[in-house]
Amino acid sequence: MSPLTHSIARGAVGLGLFAIVTAGVVGLTHSLTFERIVENRLASEYQALEQVVPAALHDNDLVDGAITLPAAEMLGHPEAFTAWQARQDGQISAIILPVTTRQGYSGDISLLAGIAADGTLTGVRVLSHRETPGLGDKIDVRKSDWIEQFAGLSLGNPPPERWAVKEDGGAFDAFTGATVTPRAVVGAVQRSLEYFAAHRERLLQAPEETTDESIQ
User: Fold this and answer.
1) Phi and psi (nearest 5°) for 43?
2) Where is the FMN-binding domain (predicted)?
């Protein structure tokens, strides 16, 4: 092998090793980043679960109360989804339903609605959204306390026709310059209550007693 050929071969091997090492580093970085994203998301969801059903209303670990429910278009779930049962003294005291509305100003809005066994909202929290900063993002509890107003309400309080923003003749304030976002959230929360009312008996059953056929 001539010196030139030998030099080229060594260069090719070096480039190959560099590519392998670089790919490995990139892959590891991506893996670690993905794991961190998943961990952060799970931590955020766990915190939200605890916020929508206060500690005084349950004595179980809410994450352990996860159940699988069949597809529910009215909640924005075309496929089976996870909900959570809160328990107190061995009895199911509340259910936490995830809801996604596609009527946000800038895209989907995903939230959690906590509903006590008597049909009263225990709390609502937005999990994700892409609403306009300084306007629609006030649905986020870190930006304003607007979302807090749902706790204690039910399908009958206010009456069904009042489950709308004030601009539409309802009971809920909108945001200056951003009516679409609160309208979407109010509608999503109302649908969660309607879903609960339609399936209350089954939602308050222990997981082993609940079947897909019982919730349609």
Assistant:
1) -65, -40
2) 104-196
